[in-house]
Amino acid sequence: LPRVSPAWNILQPILVEALEGFRADQIAARKCAEINLRIKNLITAVQTFRWVQACQHDPALLPTVVDFAHKEPFKSLLDPELSPKSILHETSSSQELMTQIALASDTWRNDVDKQLAALLATSDDASLDDSPLSLAFVAFSCKKCKRTSIEYPDVIAHHCAHEAIDWPSCSDMFAREIGLQTGRRHPWSGQHFEFSGTTNLEARRNAIAACGLDPKVTTRVVLDDLDPRLSCNMCEDGPKKLVMTWRSAVRFGTLNLRC
Questions:
Q1: What is the pLDDT of residues 75-92, one digit of tens each?
Q2: pTM of this structure
Q3: DSSP readout, the chain?
């Protein structure tokens, strides 16, 4: 049609809108493909890192893919608009990428420890402030599944830590996408945990003291190495006398069991 014809004047805005929409769809498709490629490379890189670290550390205590994705620098590296030449575009095994993952893993663990240590400060017992998480009397409870007496570092691997009440906000779209792909709902969070109550704390301190050790400085490693056995003073001597490990003694005291 001649560009000066009335028909062209009617069709021109319709055609322009259609072409612009087609162009926007193509750009969005290319961006989505690039994001998926970067996500795939990040997943592969993190899996490789966790496999290597498994020789020295419990994999359950290591960060997952979604833990990396919602933090910098990986959040920017996953976004083609923020990082047009991202190292995640070309490979999943570059030394630079593995170094960044290792550094981010250390940062993640420090952040997790800080969240857990902060829970000690919420206790009414002022003596718990600045207490190391490795001490034998330190334990946590989960408000979501109601499990109690979860020790450190087992609390890091607790399944409720990767669940959330709400999905991540729109700003965490990449973390949410990776979460869907890897079966994780949300990055690690200590929002469901709290320091175990007074009864559990008292039972742990009593069990440690019964071993002849100072609860203020005794760690779980020390007790596990000693592997002591405790008996109930309320039981009569004989074949039915109750003999317990230190953790069994804690459960015994926490539940207020009586012979």
A1: 888 888 888 888 887 776
A2: 0.78
A3: --TTSHHHHHHHHHHHHHHHHHHHHHHHHHHHHHHHHHHHHHHHHHHHHHHHHTTTS-GGGS--HHHHHTSTTHHHHH-TTT-TT-TTTT-S--HHHHHHHHHHHHHHHHHHHHHHHHHHHTSS-GGGTT--TTBTT-EEEETTT----EETTHHHH-GGGG--SSPPPGGGHHHHHHHHHHT--SS---TTEEE--HHHHHHHHHHHHHTT--TTT-BHHHHHHH---EE-TTSPSSTT--EE-HHHHHHHHHTT---
